[in-house]
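Case study 2.
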Amino acid sequence: MGRFYLHIRMSDSDQIIIDQEGSDFSDIASARLEALAAARCILADAIKAGSENIPDAFVIADSQGRELETVKFAQVLPKSMKDLADQLPEETRVTSS
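Prediction:
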């Protein structure tokens, strides 16, 4: 059992939202599963709200602050949506400025 921190990296900047508390997981795989589940919830809420300020990834760190893994939010999108986004011409993609 170890304490892992699921920091959020924002997509429109280099901003990292620090997880101050962390959570106990049996291993990095369990922390990764939690990050994937949380990414689904955050994306669903952002889509429902019409928000364009969507995080890019969770950065999983250990209790010493070492970054162990990055879980990109795009990983939780259905394959058909990822493929569709990749096919859009660059000028039709929505970007924040």
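The helical segments are 28-49, 79-87.
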